[in-house]
């Protein structure tokens, strides 16, 4: 009995020590985001989905705590905050950082382009899997991409009907990024630089006549309260956000946890595209009902006709030159962003 008691005591002690060791290895990671927790849009909803899935797939061993609404780092601060280890995960609005991330901004130089949300995300996954230069660009800033969050297919939301290129003449259209200014000029309109948060008032007071946007985002910002015409001009899906990690945090994970993150990043894209599609359908139903937004088809041929404009071609060539200088076969990549490419 005495020996059995000793063995039981030793076993209990071993369990306690093992439990302490497991507890010590458990991690609570920090996610930095500009999104408000209660936003209810596809971005916020799927961020929470990823966080919940991470805990589930690691059997509760690891967790992610989300710091919503820019409470730790504002939108333009997130890359530096992640690189410095202030957070472990975060969402980076890639077009805000053209000088830091020229390769990873590829899609932003090719508007319009033929791919939808899911296809743009898969395109970015393929680029990272095929060309190490895309990941190296981030690694040089102590960042690692775990996933991609493209925006939805974009059209134009306007405060007046636009049915052809002729109707574009003289309009003031919100502009940002690389391709939009030259594209808007090629369409005969005037690009106006205005912040997302100011576009509601801009449309309301006719400071701008239109803004490039998708239905879900238009509803999220409530632009459709003051602009009642959505023009189905086929701009394609914009590439929006990197789901990024601090590279040291990623490399510091054990193999099993890192495998969970790698798979979760791929699964996130599919879940995000699904939720976004449902959100867009809901918004379009609202537009047909009480919100009273008229959806207008725009002739695709007229849009594609401006792709030969010198300014539009100049922007595309700018990315090709940068990518070639980085050792990437840019002309081959650019074919996927052309309208004659299979989509």
TrEMBL record:
Residue ranges of coiled coil: none
Annotated transmembrane regions: none
Keyword Transport annotated: yes
GO biological process: transmembrane transport
CDD domains the record matches: PBP2_TRAP_DctP_like_1
One GO cellular component, as annotated: periplasmic space
Family to which this protein belongs: Belongs to the bacterial solute-binding protein 7 family.
Protein name listed in UniProt: TRAP-type C4-dicarboxylate transport system substrate-binding protein
